[in-house]
């Protein structure tokens, strides 16, 4: 399923809304690295691939800007392990 994901750079956040609930990914920029620090999906809308879509969109944005993807968030750590094509040497902060 495709989700309408909105980037709010002033809040360092990617978000989507489904069934009146907001799911989001928060990030920070460290030197030349793009670090996902938190992924949140409300329980009633879990299990639909929302977190994966948000993380992918965020890391696509990082890639477009030449930033190395890293992860402090446990979900993003696992996501990066499943996507080694994103330069997985040391993606965990």
Topology:
Elements lengths: L5 E3 L4 E6 L2 E10 L2 E8 L9 H15 L3 E4 L2 H9 L11
Parallel strand pairs: 4-5
Antiparallel strand pairs: 1-2, 2-3, 3-4
Tell me what you see in this structure.
The chain has 93 residues and is an alpha+beta fold. It has one domain (6-86): Gcn5-related N-acetyltransferase (GNAT) (Aminopeptidase, 3-Layer(aba) Sandwich), CATH 3.40.630.30. Helices cover 26% and strands 33% of the residues. The protein has a five-stranded mixed β-sheet with strand order 1-2-3-4-5. A hairpin with a 4-residue loop joins β1 and β2 (13-18). The longest helix has 15 residues, at 50-64. The model has no long low-confidence stretch (mean pLDDT 92).
Shape verdict: globular
Q: Over the alpha carbons, how many angstroms does the gyration radius reach? A: 12 Å
Number of domain modules: 1
CATH architecture: 3-Layer(aba) Sandwich
According to DSSP, the number of beta strands is 5
* Largest sheet descriptor: 5 strands, mixed
* Percentage beta strand: 25-35%
Q: Could you spell the SSE succession in H and E letters?
A: EEEEHEH
What's the mean pLDDT score?
A: 92
Question: What is the terminal separation in angstroms?
Answer: 30 Å
CATH topology: Aminopeptidase
Poorly predicted segments: none
Strands of the widest sheet, in order across it, are 1-2-3-4-5
CATH level 1 name: Alpha Beta
């Amino acid at each position: 399923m495709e989700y309408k994901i909105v980037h709010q750079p002033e809040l360092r956040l990617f978000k989507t809304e489904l069934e009146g609930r907001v799911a989001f990914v928060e990030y920070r920029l460290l030197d030349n690295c793009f670090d996902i620090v938190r992924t949140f999906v409300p329980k009633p809308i879990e299990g639909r691939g929302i977190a994966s879509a948000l993380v992918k969109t965020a890391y696509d944005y990082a890639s477009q800007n030449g930033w190395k993807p890293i992860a402090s968030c446990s979900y993003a750590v696992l996501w990066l392990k499943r996507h080694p094509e994103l330069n997985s040497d040391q993606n965990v902060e």
